[in-house]
Amino acid sequence: MVISTEGLSFNFGNQQVVKSLSLQVPEGSIYGFLGPNGAGKTTTIKLLLNLLKTDQGSIHVFDKELQSNRISILSQIGSLIEQPAIYLHLSGKENLMNRALLLQVSEQRVDEMLSLVHLTDAAQKKAGKYSLGMKQRLGIALALLPDPKLLILDEPTNGLDPNGIIEVRELLIRLVTQHNKTVFISSHLLAEVERMATHVGIIDKGEMLFQGSIKDLEAISQPQVQIEVANTVDAANFLKKQGFTVTDISDDHLLIPFTSKAQMGEINSLLNGNRYVVYSIKQIHKDLEKLFLDITQKA
Fold first, then answer.
1. Which CATH class is domain 3-213?
2. How many whole angstroms separate alpha carbon 107 and alpha carbon 101?
3. Where is average pLDDT lowest: 90-94, 170-174, 252-256, 294-298?
4. b/e burial code for range 131-144 (CB count within 10 A of at least 16 → b)
5. What CATH number has the domain spanning 224-298?
6. CA atoms within 13 A on the CB side of 189
7. Residues 6+ apart with CB under 8 A from 115
8. Residue 231, Cβ neighbours under 10 Å: how many?
9. pLDDT tens track for 212-269
10. Residues 6+ apart with CB under 8 A from 57
11. Euclidean distance between the first and the last CA atom of the chain, given in angstroms as a whole number
């Protein structure tokens, strides 16, 4: 595990913001840290970066305890919390060169980062003239300058337009698949995380409600048979009389808990044989947004 915490807790005054949190972030993963606004995501990230001191519990990063190995651990982490700290009056390259001087990193590394985040053509342009997506990519380039093993990003797609979101998503996937990084990303944009995360942790009111791989998350929800059919209400009533459980009815489709492919064939035959026009029938899983709501509402 690149990140491992046990019983991690933190209070602001009398308010407990993080409650006995146990994080397990595997190496080479894109770990989506999910939760509504105010759930404790940013506070947890500040604890991981040693910007806040833990009240209780332990934090291990790269199999080392954070407090006693602070400098060696933090030197291998790149981070971006909400908005990138960039100088708007400097060009993209000048921003990177300024950081490179502090880190004693070569200009070649700066050029490599500009290429990696697809900003080479805009390298001489003032950062104040960058779009939001370009600014976020520049912020990620700044975080990557020292070649960290772990990248921690807090809401990196916040306020971005669809193009900017796609740019950041594709960059993060490249970092993991081609450059052997581990990415820990907090977000409340569930559909976006679903497109790139390999693992997720769902937090609410400071408590971990679910943690595991995307496949683990799908496994806890029963698959459904989605039937697109004419006259959904009539078709649903007919299927109920045949002993099927209908869990949802909309204007153009209905849902029945999936048990087997044979069951799907039986449903299709029954509907067609009784003059219900079936446009499509397929097995579906709940998307991350619905699973998130199921998990947080149960809590």
1. alpha beta
2. 9
3. 294-298
4. ebbbbbbbbbbbbb
5. 3.30.70
6. 18
7. none
8. 12
9. 887 777 666 667 788 888 888 888 888 888 888 887 787 888 888 888 888 888 888 8
10. 5, 6, 7, 8, 9, 20, 21
11. 27
